[in-house]
TrEMBL record:
InterPro entries: Cro/C1-type_HTH, Lambda_DNA-bd_dom_sf. This is Helix-turn-helix transcriptional regulator. The lineage of its organism: Bacteria, Pseudomonadati, Bacteroidota, Flavobacteriia, Flavobacteriales. Residues 49-101 form the HTH cro/C1-type domain. Pfam families: HTH_26 (PF13443).
Length: 103
């Protein structure tokens, strides 16, 4: 058995349903890739043009530590709530942000 998820007597769930795990892995990869793209866009187009990280945070109703997470090269730190706050402060819809990014 390759994994610890038992499906039936000694049969691994991953062996029985490999397509399920592949689909989950692809979905996760796309989400991580999209988050990185969103963070990089916000960092380059908006935060870098702001007076400071603190000013951007205050203007957009988010915490400064979130701004620092967005600025990380791996761009992993943004939630849907944060995205909504930033878009609301800029008076745009999330769908408009995706169009700007090119998704």
């Amino acid at each position: 058995m390759i994994c610890g998820f038992k499906y039936r007597k000694n049969q691994c769930f991953a062996e029985k349903f490999p397509h399920y795990f592949l689909r989950q892995a692809i979905t996760l990869f796309i989400m991580v890739s999209l988050k990185k793209k969103i963070c990089n866009y916000i960092a380059k187009e908006w935060i870098s043009k702001s007076k400071s990280n603190r000013q951007f945070a205050d203007d957009h109703g988010i915490d400064e530590k979130v701004v620092r997470r967005i600025l990380k090269p791996e761009g992993s730190g943004i939630s849907l709530t944060t995205l909504e706050r930033i878009c609301e402060a800029r008076e745009i819809k999330i769908s408009e942000l995706f169009q700007m990014i090119g998704e």
